Amino acid sequence: MSTERDSELSFIRPDVRAMTGYTPGEQPRGGRVVKLNTNENPYPPSPLVLEAMVSAASDAVRLYPDPMASDLCRRAAEVYGVAADQVLAGNGSDELLMMVLRACVGPGDAVAYPVPTYSLYETLVQIVGGRAVSVPFDRDFVLPVDGVVELAGKVTFVCNPNAPSGTVTPLAVIDEMASRLKGLLVVDEAYADFGTSTATELIERHPNVVVLRTFSKSFSLAGLRVGLAFGPQPVMAELAKVKDSYNLNRVSIAAATAALNDLDWMRANVEKVRRTRARLTEELTKLDYDVLPSDTNFVLARQPGINQEAVYKMLRAAGVLVRYFDLPALRDALRITVGTDEEIDALLAALRAAR
Amino acid sequence: MSTERDSELSFIRPDVRAMTGYTPGEQPRGGRVVKLNTNENPYPPSPLVLEAMVSAASDAVRLYPDPMASDLCRRAAEVYGVAADQVLAGNGSDELLMMVLRACVGPGDAVAYPVPTYSLYETLVQIVGGRAVSVPFDRDFVLPVDGVVELAGKVTFVCNPNAPSGTVTPLAVIDEMASRLKGLLVVDEAYADFGTSTATELIERHPNVVVLRTFSKSFSLAGLRVGLAFGPQPVMAELAKVKDSYNLNRVSIAAATAALNDLDWMRANVEKVRRTRARLTEELTKLDYDVLPSDTNFVLARQPGINQEAVYKMLRAAGVLVRYFDLPALRDALRITVGTDEEIDALLAALRAAR
Q1: Binned average pLDDT, 10 residues per bin, chain B of 355 residues
Q2: Which chain A residues are Cβ-neighbours of B98 within 8 angstroms?
Q3: Does A220 have pLDDT greater than 80?
Q4: ipTM of the complex in this document
Q5: Of A44, A75, A256, A350, which residue has the fewest beta carbons closer than 10 angstroms?
Q6: Which chain A residues are Cβ-neighbours of B240 within 8 angstroms?
Q7: Between B92, B106, B184, which is nearest A246 by CB?
Q8: Which residues of chain B does A102 touch, with a Cβ-Cβ cutoff of 8 Å?
Q9: Is the pLDDT of residue A3 over 50?
C-alpha cells in the first residue's frame, strides 16, 4: 500500500485496514454446478412462502416495514414456546450475532468460542474491536467446557450443532456451561432442525442465554435473510436498541411468517436430508473417509493426515463444489452439504472416479 | 432498575444500557389514516419492480444471495455515472451509515454533523461508542461550514437535502467542505431526487467523500430496504469488510435493479410530489406557517415561538399523522410529508377546521 493511499485512508480504523474481511462460500453464477459448499437446502421452500412473497409484491412496499417484525415474532413465539417479547428477528442470524456483539462488547473485551467453528465469529469480533479468544475442540469435537469457561468471555459463542463438524453438544452440557459463565452465552442453532436438540428452554432458567435460529437452512430461505433470537426479555430489550431501525423488509417478514405456518413442509425436507445424510455417510466411509456423526445438513469427512485440497480441486473440476478450509485442524477434511440424492450420487461418482 | 436486574445484565455495555434507542416514526397498523409522518412516497413503485419481485418468488430463494449485489451495483454505476467498484449496496442507507461508522469510528472518536438533522445519526454513533459532536444550523438552515469543519470529525455527516428542514446546501459548499475536512465526509442524499443537486461527482475529486442514496423515498421502496453508497474505490473496499456478509436479500436486489431500469416512472412520481409540494407550501403559508424551501418530499412548517404539539395531536385525532419533534429547535414546527393531493387536502381541511 502506498504512502499516499495510506494517508488518504487515515479516517479508516487501523484494525479495519488490517482486516481481510469474511470470505463467503463461492456462489457460482449459473452453469451446471452441483453446489454442496454453503449448506443450502436442496429442496424448495413451502408453497405458502412463495404465495406470501407474491402477495408482498404490492404497492405497500412504498411503506416502511414493521421495525420490530411483530407478526413474525408473535408466530415464532407460538411455534417455539416462548413469549413474544423473548423474540427478536434479524436480517439473517448473522445480523443477530452482530447485534449481540454491538450490545455487549467494547474494545478489547473477550469473545470466546471453541474452534474450529463458524468462521464469521472472528470477523465480527474484529469489526467491533473485541478480542477473539478460543480453545480447540478435541479431534472428536467434544466441547471443552472447562476451557471455554476459563476464557471468561463477555460473550461466548457455541455453534450447536457445530459447523463445520456437524457434531452436537448435549443440552445438559450447555445448561451447565450457562450456569458457570458470567458473560452471555449465545447458542447458535442454525442447524438445529436437522438434529434433535435445542437449548431454547434455557432462556427461561438462565438470564444470560440467547439462542439463535435461522430460516436459511431447514426452511430453505437463505436468499431472504431471516434469523430469530430467543432470550430473556431484558436481554432482548438491550439487543433491540442496537439493531438497524428497519432491519427486515416486508417480503422477508411475510415469507418467514408463512414458513412458520407450514412446519410440516420443513420437517418433510429435513427428513429427506437426514435419509440422504445417512447414505452419504455410509458411502463416504466405504471411500475411506472418517465421517463425524452429523446433526446438520452437512458432513465433515476426514482422511486423517491426508490434505484434501487436491480432492477439493478435483471435485471442483468435475463440477462439484464442496468446502475446503485451509486451516491446520481442517486440511484433512472436506465439508459436504447434503444435497439431493442425485447431487450426492454425482459427488460420489466423482470421488470414485478419482480413486 | 433493580440491583438484581443490573447484575443480570452485567454483560451488556454500560453505554448501551444507558441508551434509549431510536424511535422510528409511527407505523399505524391498518385503519384509515392519512400518513404524512415518515416521508414515504405516496405513489406506488414501477410495475417493473413488482414484476421483478414476483419473479424472485421462486425456488431460488433457497440459495444465498450475491453477497456483493453485483447486478444492482453494476446497474447503479451506469445510472449514476460511476465505476461499479465505486458502489456498495446496503440494507437501506441506514445500514450504510452503520458500515461507515464501523469502519472509521473507534471509542471516543468524534462524529460531526450540523443539527437538527436525521436523528438516527446520534443513535448510531452511540452504538459504535463514538462521540457525537454538532453545531446548530441557523434559523434558515444555512450550513455552518466553519463550525462543522472545526468539529474535526473522524466522520462528518451532512444530510443534503437536510431532514427535517428540507433545505439544501449547494454543491460548491459541500465541495469546499470536503477539501477542508481531514476525516470522511458522508453526504446523505436520501432525498436528492426531489431536488436538483447531487454530490456524486465529488467522489472523483476527493478521496474522503461518500455519497449515500436510498430507494425508500423517490423509488417508493421503503418496505424493501435498499440503499447505495458511492465513494472512491479504496474507501468502498474498506466499507465492504465490515458489512454483514449477505446484507441484501434476493428480492431487494432484484427489485432495486428493476427500479433503476424504469427511471421515468420514478421521475414522474417525483414531478407529482413537487407539484403538490408547491401547493402545500402555498396553502400552509396562507395558514400562517413559515415554510422553508424544500428540495425533498416533505416540508417543515413553522409558527415561530408557537409550540405545535397541540396541532400535531389535533391532526392525529382527525386521522392525519404528521411528525412533531420534541426538541428545542423544532417545537414550533411540524414536518409534513408530501402525500397525494387528496391526502394534502385532508391535512389542510383539518388545519382549517381547527382555526
Answers
A1: 59 92 73 91 98 98 96 98 98 97 95 96 95 97 98 98 98 98 98 97 97 98 98 97 94 98 98 98 98 98 97 96 95 98 98 90
A2: 244
A3: yes
A4: 0.95
A5: A44
A6: 21
A7: B92
A8: 16, 127-128
A9: no
Which chain A residue has its CA at the smallest distance from B100's CA?
A12
- Comparing alpha-carbon positions, the chain A residue that sits nearest to B221 is A62
Report the pLDDT value the prediction gives residue A1, as an integer from 0 to 100. Answer: 39
Q: Given pLDDT bands bounded at 50, 70 and 90, which one contains residue A26?
A: confident
- What pLDDT is attached to residue B27? 75
* A303 half-sphere exposure, CB direction, 13 A CA radius: 15
B329 in helix, strand or coil?
A: helix
Asked if residues B345 and B320 have their Cβ atoms less than 8 Å apart, the reply is: no
Interface mutation target, options B242, B247, B250, B253, chain A, most CBs of A under 10 Å: B242
For residue B126, the model assigns a pLDDT of 94
For A90-118, letters b (16+ CB in 10 Å) and e give bbbbbbbbbbbbbbbbeeebbbbbbbbbb
Integer Cα distance of A146 and A180 in angstroms: 9
Q: Which of B93, B110, B267 is nearest to B196 (CA)?
A: B267
Q: Is B310 exposed, middle or buried (0-12, 13-18, 19+ CB in 10 A)?
A: exposed
Q: Which H or E element spans position B334?
A: strand B333-337
Residue B302 near residue B332 (C-beta atoms within 8 A)? yes
In a mutational test of the A interface, the residue from B74, B109, B245, B272 whose CB has the highest number of chain A CBs within 10 Å is B245
Kindly report the CATH number that applies to the domain delimited by A47-262: 3.40.640.10
Domains of chain A, by residue range, sit at: 2-44+264-353, 47-262
Say whether A53 and B53 touch across the interface (CB within 8 A): yes
- Pairs of residues, one from chain A and one from chain B, whose beta carbons lie less than 8 Å apart: 257
H or E segment and range at residue A336: strand A333-337
Answer whether residue A234 shows pLDDT above 60.
Answer: yes
Residues with Cβ < 8 Å from A303, sequence gap 6 or more? A288, A289, A290, A332
Interchain proximity B103–A13, CB inside 8 Å: yes
Give the residue, B21 or A102, on which the prediction is more confident.
A102
DSSP state of A45: P
Element (H, E) at B115: strand B110-115
Distance set, CA B39 to CA B32, B96, B259, B297 (Å): 18, 19, 19, 6
d(CA B298, CA A154): 44
**How is chain A split among helix, strand and coil, in percent rounded to 5?**
45, 15, 40
Dihedral, B58, B251, B244, B178 alpha carbons, nearest 10: 160
- Which pLDDT value is given to residue A236? 97
Compare all CA atoms of chain A with the CA of B219 and give the residue at the minimum distance: A62
The residue written with cell numbers 458511492 in the block is B230
Q: What is the pLDDT of residues A46-90, one digit of tens each?
A: 999 999 999 999 999 999 999 999 999 999 999 999 999 999 999
Query: Which residues are within 8 A (CB) of A58 and not within 5 positions of it... i.e. 6 or more apart?
Result: B50
Q: How confident is the model at residue A30 (pLDDT cuts 50, 70, 90)?
A: low
Question: How far apart are the CA of A278 and the nearest CA of chain B, in angstroms?
Answer: 22
Per-residue cell: B196: 436538483
Give the pairing type, strands A298-302 and A227-230: unpaired
pTM of the model: 0.96
